[in-house]
Every structure is written in structure tokens, then in C-alpha cells.
Design goal:
Strand content: 5-15%
CATH class of one domain: Alpha Beta
Structural class: alpha/beta
Strand order of the largest sheet: 3-4-12-9-10-11
Shape: globular
Bound molecules: pyridoxal-5'-phosphate
């Protein structure tokens, strides 16, 4: 597959180059030359295929020929010992994306990316430095995915004081080849610093830099998999049993007695509500739709950082500074993946498949409390934004609607538990709080970041 910059056509690069360089030299994002369609036989059996087989079929055309055959099979097997169950909750479905080691959906992208990088660089002598900005969950997933990978060093920038204590320990508690930098500023400052570092020719001559942000195609593409798997299940009229760590109150009912259940009906495409910040997740969903997964459309669910819902409303894109909310992984005022969405989908077309809904913190809290009261299901603040926004689809009679549950509620217990009472903690999160935070604090200035990167040469 060839990849081109969103800003200039040029000659294009292969998957390996697109993944390892992260951002195109002109500052644009890499997009595939075409979004491939699933072979008909695959499309017809998405509902019954094993998650890993769907991953293989989905990722294959994007990484061919640099990664193929048994290498890709091994990579996918290693990356996904967990899946994404589609479970009924109250009057709709939850596509649970938090069964990976850091309990957020970013494990799907980060685990594939780390394995792909390690393979693609198998003959390289020079160490690779991965520089990534996080609003909360990316950092943990990237740190976990790359921890202990030889020849790769990771530097994670996060906004000081704006991530949860658990997130901070996932980012800054590993040590080894994982360095953590607490930036005095917000997520947009972190992202700006990363972009500035990439644009610094002198630095790039000295250090072999790559990004692990959701702009990276190696993270984006594997996120397409769970959309295809979830929509495939629903299209077959099926749901899954609760996952091992499904956060339900013991003995609670899966469905609300007396309420209409907008569950899957055989042959009906699924509407998915994606809690969105940097819009990597939703972009992957759009890819799945284009590949032929049985998806009716999307709800782009944001908190009050509603740059994209406003764009969908007005046709006018206006970046803003981000505002802090209780769904902090979505506090993004200028989502980087928007450029990629705009490169693929003209405004009018996008409006037909995506509806934008913005949700306040007050509504988010009410949703967490209300859903728990009615169903015994614990939503994390991000998934609750998705749930509330999905009301639009449920009330409009769009048929089966799934909310992407992007994080396990135990990751945000300080927000959720006052509204619900104690959440059962999955084993993967139990040990994290015991880790010691080891981060360097810097002002939001490029020179401070460069000092840290050069010191570690
Ligand atoms: C990162 C994140 C989001 C937002 O995903 P984007 O791809 O940045 O839109 C939503 N929920 C959680 C829990 C996240 O970690």
C-alpha cells in the first residue's frame, strides 16, 4: 500500500516509512492511497469470524508487502490476547474496548504499533526515539506496548495535573526505556511541542524520531478492526457474553425490564457512537465503513470541546484552545485527525454519515448515575459522553445502536464512584497504583524538551 500526505500528492511512501516517520515531511498526515474493500467472503462472515482473523483480514492490505504472511499472523496473535465484546446494556449495546492491559481502547492501536515497529526495524542499528503527547490514555497504552522493546526509547509528554492518578502511574511508573515528561500546560501544548520537535531539522539529524500519536497509521489502522467485528456481530443478529472484566453490579439485569431494546436485528447495519477527542477512533470507524463493514453511521460524541460537532453543523472548522473536563482524554480543541477525515470525506458526504453531539460534564455525571441506577452497568466518563450522545440515534429510531465503551470505569474511579459506589477493579489495574511516579516537569517550551531529549542520547 502507498501512503500520501494530506497536503501534497508527491510520490508517496510505503507502510514502513509512513509508520516509522509518523508525520509526512510537509507536516501533513499520511493517508492510504485507497481504502481497500473487504473481499466479499470476509464481509459476509464478519459476524462469525474470530477477532484475530478479522484483525488479519482488516490490516493485511494496509501493510502489504512489508508485513505479510505468518509474520502478520504472529503479530496479530501477540497483540490481541483480548477482544472487544458487544454486550447488551439497558436499551442499547456497549462495544467494550477496555479489555486490554491498560483498560482503554488505545491498547488496540498501541500493541499493534509496537510489534510492527519492532519488526520493521529488525535490521537497524540506531535506536529509535518515540515522542508522543497524551491527554491521558495514549501515554499509558504506548508505554505498556513498548515497555522492554529493544532499540526503542519512548518519551511521553502529558499535561501536568490533568491526568488521573492511575493514568499518571501507567505513563510514568514503568521506567526503563519509557521516559515521562509532565508539561506545565494543557494537552494542546503537549501536542504542539511534539509537532515542533518533529519540525526541528537539527534535532532530527541527531535523533531518529518517530511518533506514536493517533496520527500514526500503525495505530489508526488496527482500530478499524473492532468496528468491523462489532458491526459484523450485530449484522448477524448476535451479541457476546459479558467479558471477564465487564463492569456490572453483581446480579444486575442486562436489559431494562419494560424498556425497548434497540439490540441487533439480523441484516440491519449498526450505528456507533464514538467518544471523541483527537478523532483517531472515529477515523478508524469511517475506514471500517468504507471497507464494507455493515455500519449505518456514527455519532461523533464530544465533551464541550466541540470543534467537530460545530464543523458538522456549520461547515466551518475553527480550532480552539481545549477546556478541561471530566472526560480528560477528549479535551482536544484542534483534533489532529480532522485533517485526515477532511482529506477523505467532503463535508456534505461526512454530514450524511456522522452526526456530532456535544455533552456537558453535568450531563456526563447524570448519565453515569442514571445508567448505573437503571442497569447496574458502570460507565467511565468518556463512555458516558458516548452514551448520552447516542440518545440522539436511539430516539431517532436508527435501530441497533452501540456505544463505544472506551475505558474501564475503574480507571476514573474518583469521578465515577461518588455517583455509583464501588467499582470492581480488573486485575490489570490493581498493581498499577503501587508504582512510583518518575517524571520530569518542564515548561511548555521546545527548548526544554530538546534539553531532555539530548540529555538522553
Ligand atoms: C483517547 C480516548 C478517547 C478519544 O479518542 P480519540 O481517538 O482521540 O478521538 C476517548 N475515550 C478514551 C477513554 C480515550 O482514552
Amino acid at each position: 500500500m502507498r501512503y500520501y500526505s494530506t497536503r501534497s500528492r508527491g510520490e508517496g511512501v510505503n507502510f514502513s516509512t509512513a509508520a516509522l516517520t509518523g508525520l509526512a515531511p510537509d507536516g501533513g498526515l499520511f493517508v492510504p492511497e485507497v481504502i481497500p474493500a473487504y473481499p466479499e467472503a470476509v464481509r459476509a462472515s464478519l459476524g462469525s469470524m474470530d477477532f484475530r482473523d478479522i484483525a488479519l483480514e482488516t490490516i493485511k492490505p494496509y501493510v502489504y508487502p512489508e508485513i505479510s504472511g505468518s509474520t502478520l499472523e504472529d503479530l496479530v496473535q501477540g497483540a490481541y490476547p483480548f477482544t472487544a465484546p458487544l454486550v447488551p446494556v439497558g436499551d442499547r449495546l456497549a462495544l467494550e474496548l477496555f479489555h486490554g492491559p491498560t483498560a482503554a481502547f488505545k491498547d488496540f492501536g498501541a500493541r499493534f504499533m509496537s510489534r510492527a515497529f519492532s519488526f520493521l526495524r529488525r535490521n537497524e542499528e540506531r535506536p529509535l526515539r518515540i515522542l508522543t503527547a497524551t491527554s491521558g490514555d495514549t501515554g499509558g497504552a504506548v508505554a505498556d506496548g513498548f515497555f522492554g522493546v529493544p532499540g526503542i526509547f519512548v518519551t511521553v509528554l502529558y499535561p501536568k495535573g490533568r491526568v488521573s492518578p492511575l493514568q499518571e502511574r501507567q505513563i510514568a511508573g514503568l521506567g526503563g526505556n519509557i521516559g515521562a515528561v509532565a508539561v506545565e500546560g494543557n494537552f494542546d501544548d503537549c501536542q504542539r511541542l511534539v509537532k515542533a520537535a518533529f519540525a526541528d531539522e537539527r534535532l532530527r539529524k541527531r535523533i531518529c524520531l518517530s511518533s506514536a500519536n493517533s496520527i500514526n497509521v500503525a495505530r489508526l489502522i488496527p482500530q478499524t478492526v473492532y468496528y468491523a467485528a462489532g458491526a459484523g456481530r450485530a449484522f448477524a443478529g448476535l451479541t457476546d457474553a459479558d467479558g471477564e472484566a465487564t463492569p456490572r453490579k453483581a446480579g444486575s439485569a442486562r436489559l431494562v425490564p419494560g424498556a425497548a431494546f434497540h439490540g441487533p436485528v439480523k441484516g440491519e447495519p449498526l450505528t456507533l457512537a464514538a467518544p471523541s477527542g483527537n478523532f483517531g477512533n472515529l477515523t478508524a470507524g469511517l475506514y471500517a465503513l468504507k471497507m464494507g463493514a455493515p455500519i449505518r453511521g456514527f455519532i461523533a460524541a464530544t465533551n464541550i470541546n466541540k470543534t467537530v460537532p460545530d464543523y458538522l453543523e456549520s461547515g466551518h472548522y475553527e480550532a480552539r484552545p481545549s477546556l478541561p473536563t471530566i472526560s480528560n482524554a477528549m479535551d482536544v480543541g484542534d483534533p489532529s485527525n480532522f485533517e485526515r477525515i477532511a482529506a477523505h470525506w467532503p463535508y456534505e458526504e461526512l454530514r450524511r454519515i456522522v452526526r456530532g453531539v456535544s455533552v456537558t460534564d453535568e450531563e456526563t455525571r447524570q448519565t453515569i448515575a442514571g445508567v448505573y441506577r437503571q442497569t447496574g452497568y458502570f460507565l467511565d466518563p468518556h463512555s458516558a459522553v458516548g452514551w448520552k450522545a447516542a440518545d440522539t440515534a436511539v430516539n431517532a429510531g436508527f435501530g441497533a445502536t452501540a456505544v463505544l465503551a472506551t475505558a474501564h470505569p475503574a480507571k476514573f474511579s474518583e469521578t465515577v464512584e461518588p455517583l455509583t459506589g464501588p467499582i470492581p477493579v480488573p486485575p490489570s489495574l490493581k498493581t498499577v497504583m503501587e508504582r512510583e511516579v518518575r517524571a520530569q516537569t518542564i515548561p511548555a517550551e521546545l527548548s526544554a524538551l530538546i534539553t531532555i531529549l539530548e540529555a538522553s542520547l
